[in-house]
Amino acid sequence: MYKNKNFFSFLTGGSVATLGGLIGLGGAEFRLPILVKFFGFATLSAIIINKIVSLAVVIFSLFFRSHTIGFEEIIPYSSIIINILIGSLVGAYIGANYAMNLREVILNKIIFVLLIILALSMLIGHNYLSYGEALFSNKIILFIVGVISGVLIGVISAILGVAGGEFIIPTLILLFGLEPKLAGSISLCISLPTMLMAFFRYSKSQQFKQILKEKTFIVYMIIGSFIGSFIGAMLLDYVNSEYIAMILGIILLISAWKVFKIND
Questions:
Q1: Rounded to two decimals, what is the model's pTM?
Q2: Is the terminal CB of the chain with fewer CB neighbours within 10 Å at N or C?
Q3: Band of the pLDDT at 264, cuts 50, 70, 90?
Q4: What span, in angstroms and rounded, lies between the C-alpha atoms of 220 and 216?
Q5: Continuous segment of H or E residues that includes residue 65
Q6: How many domains does the chain have?
Q7: Highest-scoring range by mean pLDDT, 21-25, 27-31, 210-214
Q8: Domain coverage including residue 20
Q9: Terminus-to-terminus CA distance in the chain, angstroms?
């Protein structure tokens, strides 16, 4: 497998990014188990690689999705983006700091629980999402809840090395009443700065220096992700993202159990 490592890096990067692009996610939830189980990276190293690739995927997805939902449609919601970011930037720094200081066995248990929650949210959460009005009419309460939600999103994003869209999108729909496809694009605008904060914290770790040796592997995965993000964005108008999310939820549930299951 080692001789074909870069090829498989390209292939998996493209496949995950295609699926992620269809549902407005970076796809890192599915990439993390692959990095650990298939490519054999230690958990923290896999998280950091996941973060690097996820950054690229989010940038690609945001750009490619703009043909369907333009930036002129996103700008009016800048206050919501800032609201969530206030909390998520803090949460991302805290989450990355904890991840670097936890023993791998504890980190694996935390990741296992988070992936199970993500899988279940994909399977059942989308069926109960409704949009149209903000959850709270009081703007102060809405702002405070938005900040708290942002902190939790930032922590999860940093620990898993993910874009956090599976939590950001429901938050935008339920809390602020946004339409799902619009929420998918806005979530990418929130994910990018949040991930940069976690990346900044991870860049100071010893593992980050070791990961630089895998730069060719990472570049191949990013190239694959670029192509996959483009394909996913082009299919956005033709595929029912709800069904995609349910299928991916099952896949994530299985992979989380096989890779990060808690052993007594």
A1: 0.77
A2: C
A3: very low
A4: 6
A5: helix 43-65
A6: 1
A7: 210-214
A8: 2-260
A9: 31
